[in-house]
Design brief:
The protein starts with a helix and ends with a strand. With 96 residues, it is α+β, with helices and mostly antiparallel strands. The chain has 2 domains: 54 residues, no CATH class; 30 residues, no CATH class. Helices cover 19% and strands 39% of the residues. A 3-stranded antiparallel sheet has the order 6-5-7, with no helix packed on it.
Length: 96
C-alpha cells in the first residue's frame, strides 16, 4: 500500500489551463475575464488593434414602420394605432 502512496507523490503536478483566443488567425493568451467576454459575444466580433483586443463596432441599422399623415388613410380612435375604425380622408398610413 505504501508503494501506491509513493507513486502518487511522484506524479508531476497538472499543468494550468491557460485561456487562449484565436482572433484574426492569431492565438493570444488572455485573462479569464476577457476569455469569457470574447466567447460570449463570439471571436468574429473582435479584432486586434495595436496588439489590443477591441470589439468591432455594431453597424446594424433598423427600420421601423411609423404612422404618417396621408390624403387617405386610417381613422384611429383617440389617435391609438391599435384601434383603427376605418379608412377616411386625412387619416394616417403606415410607412417606412
Amino acid at each position: 500500500m505504501s508503494e501506491i502512496f509513493k507513486a502518487l507523490a511522484n506524479l508531476p503536478s497538472p499543468k494550468a489551463n491557460i485561456p487562449m483566443i484565436e482572433i484574426q488567425g492569431k492565438k493570444i493568451e488572455v485573462s479569464l475575464e476577457v476569455f469569457k467576454e470574447v466567447t460570449m459575444h463570439g471571436p468574429e466580433n473582435y479584432e486586434l488593434v495595436d496588439g489590443k483586443i477591441t470589439r468591432k463596432p455594431d453597424i446594424r441599422t433598423y427600420k421601423y414602420a411609423y404612422l404618417q399623415k396621408a390624403d387617405e388613410g386610417y381613422d384611429l380612435i383617440d389617435g391609438d394605432m391599435f384601434w383603427p375604425v376605418g379608412i377616411c380622408e386625412g387619416g394616417v398610413k403606415w410607412t417606412r
